[in-house]
Fold each of these.
Amino acid sequence: MNIAGLLFLLLTQFISGRGFVKLFRVQLSFVALACLSMICGVMLVSFVPCLLQIMHIPLTVGSMYVGIGILTALLAVPQLLKYKDIKLPSLKLPQLYEIPFYLVFLALIITSVWRCYYFPPTPRDVLTGTELIAEYAVREHTMLNSALTVDLRLNGAANNIFKSPFITGLQIVYKFLVQPFGEVWLSVLFVSFTVWFYSLLRERVHPVIAGTLMLILLATPDLFAYTYIILYDYPNMIFFFAGFFFFLRYMEGEKLNDLAMVTTMFGFATYLRNETLVMVAAIALPFAWSLYKRKTPVKDIAIRGLILMSGAIFFNFIVAKLFMKAFIPVPFSLGELISKDWMNLSGIIEKNIAICTDLIFTPKGMQVYGQFFYFFLSVFIVDLVITRKLNFEARWCLWFIAIVYFCLGTLSHLIPSHTIMNSAKRGLFKILPLMTLYLANTGILKRLSDFITNRENKLQASAGQPKVANQPAPKSGRGKVSR
Amino acid sequence: MHLKVNLTLLSILIIFAFFKLPFYNNWMNTNLLNPAFDIVSLSKQTDLEQRKVNRYGASYLLCKQMTDFTRHQQIKNPLILLPPDGYIKEKRIRDVSIPEPTVFYYMTGQKAVWYDSPEVMKSNLALVVDPQGKLSLIKINNQQELADLLAVYKKYKLEL
């Protein structure tokens, strides 16, 4: 493995990602900013091989270094202009009771990173599509290479070459600069997301509860497997969640820069999986309704709705119109994929039921999701019976969970190749962090968290020590409770 | 301090109880602690080819043997006719699955076809099960031999 190449990529991804996030002028905690910068940096670097290809520059180690270097230099400008704003974070040591969870997370991270590094790409979806193109792009220095001369129409392989160039781009970069199997970019995304998501949970509930919730999420068998098996679904989940995170911020403060981040993150998610476009369109409905209830003028609702959807539409256009036409010499017809029975609306209900009966609550579902859904439902029902309250975040989590679920069922009805046992199965990854965040907002876990924190604070106050600051009081909106 | 120690013990108890749940205990033993994924032993096998063999298994070895054969025999423009998986299974070969032509190209850099490929009539090699029940790569000497093979392979559905 080329350690220097990996360090170069980590540094450039961080700088370019940070510059990119800085453009939106969103205020974030240090951990959130650092992790989001890394996540966005990975996305930005994935565009480099495509841009080089469009400019007819041969794909080589040198052109990768130069291309990524230029991208980073351009995106570093916003940071250099405001270099005085750069503050070093105050380092806070973890509490003693967090360390057992940290050790388990570390063990899981090491396991995932090692497997990601060690084993070559496996899924058929990438071997017959993006990885195949990337491998020959490295050998032949062009994305329009001999991989496209193989008989690609066999058994649906043609669909795989039409998938987003996100993985192709990253595989080319990492194969050139890090190791022949590429792949390590997935570990960068995984670690960044895990750290960020844990910090979000920790802001909402006591670290012992946050650690437990994080453990349940991380130990979801298929979700964990896709932290080291390259495919679109795990990165798609990350960007979809990032969009949701900024969506919550926008609904709280109605700042346009948060809305710009929402549309960008949903755009990135759509770039990875086109089906996200349908979900963003569905999200626009409760979004518009919520603004209407706040007595926002209809014209403003329409404009904001358009902004919300613009990122997803733009990136769908990039993949469907520009990428496919410029890079894939095989015709693609969406019409051929649509079911002839698409008008049969009872089919939508059947597919939505089938997600539960054929997948989630079956032995197969147990292999895929472990007992995650059972944990969720147990807490959900108990909370419904005992507290019967939903706070701002919990309500939106439930909206998004319902939207993702319903859209996956609907897509499985409309597009037969969007199977429940494959596409919907992995598409459901998107609801797992939403469910976990919901759990962190449930009344019973909040009460338990408050109980532990209060006891801790009392004991520390009696001992003359400062208060435990692991759980800031809910900000406006988040703390509001609606029945 | 007393409460912190108690909370630390609680954290350990939660983790212990979680991995004692039958499902997660099984997942930990069969996945996380699976000897096939053991980091210490795998770190002694860092050669790229070995890593591919460890992941792709017998299918990859079969592909490599086929390409070694074509190189050794100095066959120009080799195009290998791959059998359907049903044919292989019927011949009681169960420890290996035949990759599809795209995956074969990814693994070896050589082109292969299935019986329904537009280029199938150009194939000059074929993977067959010999009378001893072993997989072997044979040269296709004429169109009649190819037609006979295709007639056999077409009885089986192409499946992945």
Amino acid sequence: MTKRALLIALLVIILAPFASAQAKTPGLIAITNARIIPVVGGEIPKGTIIIKDGVIAAIGADVAVPPGAEVFDATGLRAYPGMIDGYSSLGLVEVSGVAATVDSRETGRVNPQARALEAVRYDSMHIPIARSNGITAAVVAPSGGLISGVSCLLRLDGWTNRAMAVKAAAAMHIELPGLRGARGGFGGMGRGGAQVRADGPTLLAELKELFNAARAYEKRRDAAAKNRLLALPEYNQTYECLLPLLKGEMPAMISVHSERDIRAAIAFVRDEKLKAVFYGVEQGFKAADEISKAGIPVVLGSLYDLPPVWEDGYDALFRNPGLLAKAGVKIAFSSSSASAAKDLPYHAAKAAAFGLDKTEALKAVTINTAEIFGVERTLGSLEKGKAANIVLADNDILELRTNIKRVYIDGREADLSNRYTELLEKFKRR
Amino acid sequence: MKKPLLSCLLGFVLLAAAALPASADGGDILIKNGTILTVTKGVIVKGDVLVMGGLIKQIGENISAPAGVRVVDATGRFVLPGIIDSHTHIALAGTNEGSEAITPEADVGTVINADDTSILTALSGGVTMVHTMHGSANPIGGPNVVLKTKWGRPSEELVVKEALPTLKFALGENVKQSGRTVQPGQIQRYPATRMGANAIIRREFLKAKNYMEQWDRYNKAAAAKNPPKNLVPPRQDLRMEVLAEVLRGNMVARCHSYQATETLEFMELAKELGFKIACFEHIWEGYKIADELAAAGIGISVFADSWAYKMEAAEGIAYNAGYCAKRGVLVSINSDSGERIRRLFNDAAKTMKYGGLSEEEALNLITINPAIQLGVDRIVGSLEVGKQGDIAIFNEHPMSAYTRCDMTIIEGDVYFDREAALKDREEAAKKAAAPRDKGGVS
């Protein structure tokens, strides 16, 4: 080979990638030959999804690849919408046993001023692990006390907490007492026939008083704003922060567990004219028709727990979602965790093993969750015009053995490396 | 404790009644037309398993039932060996004698609680055998015990006498008591560091060697033709007696460890002092020292992915089990929990995604591997003729997320039957809904 020929060859090799990159339109991506499970709308056995500027521009079996698109051939893969975790502590809890790394639980009982978004650690080690399992958005919730604070809904990709916020304020969290006896922790002893410990209705009565006080405060405040002769009430952060909830601008997410408390909470929501979502709802199957009639959606707690009372049956938590869905309740699953957020799909599969329809199980980690939190116009399904949150998997997305091959969040290919893979690679090299 | 027990009995009364096996010395049962996952001898796509007198008598096709033997139709279902949990604390009336650092005399085998409903929970997830252990509050805990989950049988019938005698050791944060706030007036228990934990274990074994020699000398002197007149036996020490058994090789160590360093150092101690380690528990940093573990022939019993609950678990990656298995370490997946115990099969399946194990390798982690770790692989852990008839039947492949345990059998007796439980539940609901008799005395 002459020197000149060598030089040309070298130039071709060096410039080739640039040449092809220049021909491409940034933000224009075509995923071709995928088996598309859009969740809303029928399955497409072999189709194309076009992403343009972060949004699904076209989807279907006969969609042409536009010129300039970066093409990903997804032959053998299934395309799903990114999953949404209905309740997590992602970014609020790193190492649960080390208090310095826990920001989920404020002291005191009434904390409507606490906002998860303002504390969320956006580079938490748990977020990339969840993301690499196909979870692209999550509700991040504070916990503890009677009013725990305000959750946010995050997309699981971004360089700051604010950049990740889909909804800065997703819901105001209210917690009614749990059912004693659940969760088989270390030892596995001292459980069994449990009883409802604290009194839900009493707490609801306390909330009613608090809400009335907040409404009275608002009245005085607004009256004083109009009339300078009236005394201005002293600023009260608790009341101020409750007002969006009381005006219906923000839903209440009520942790409620026992049948009695569920019934009491339904009445409470009706009387207080709240927008509400129930969370936990372990004995929901005992009041499924009432929940359905009230039109209150349910985010289930972790299914990795024992039945709150043995009389409910060993499989109570597993069959509960199916029975709720059958009664017409809109359900969504949650990891209720940070370190196990990646397990979201397996809660849905577990419920499917105990009677929940498989299609419904998939909805309950995608579109249902989006609808419950009012983000269904952008999230929860693969439809034209929605955010391009797309998961490419080599099998059923709810299956344990399925590998997630590629994830797009708002049209950007997400980094699937994480703490697991980084440590594994490091020690593989030894 | 009375009330919880009563209400759980109410909840499970019919199941419990159904579970009480007719035969104390092993039942007879024929399972027909299932996919048989033998674990050690491959898969029979449409096969039968015959258990007679508690032992597997025949595995194959078209086995006909001897007269009077119950036949279970497993068409479309999966038949596998009963699941074994290599590390739990269920069915005990006490777990941790943590008041002192060294308590090898505190034997969990003396506090077996056969009424613990965790046994039912375990059965509902196909678990037929558990290694139920002393806790990890101190460097040297107590002896552990292996049980079958024979709900309704007296505690002595649960004990698996063939199992390897094991003694619990523990290292790291639990032993250091780093999660505990020392109250005013209290002193921090020794050891408070990993240095101290290692040193105290070494001290106790050296004391045990000394103790053994004292007895050797005494026994020799006592056996002599003319024993010395003033011969006094050494004082008996129940702690030293247990450690002596470990040094003699009649007991093996099961050691709770998380970090790589403390684990390697415990292996050094074992070499230095001459005792055998059967298995490390939890060992979240196992993947960092997989080659050392494999070379030493020490097994590990771990979670699939429950991690980041304390500092020493913050590098616990889900690849740990699968990676170590691929590097030649004998791995089992444990529950350490009265809840997780019913979904060990889900946890095992995770090693296919994280670690690339095959279906068969993943299933080994909860069947034959824990059986080997407990020294009972000659009698359980796989479906083979001559082994005990401990069997679980699942509606779908046990490594699928959609699977469910339908029946659990121990030595040919049915201890969990989902269909029967559902029927009982239905009838109980009907009864509860029916109007009560007026004035009658029942």
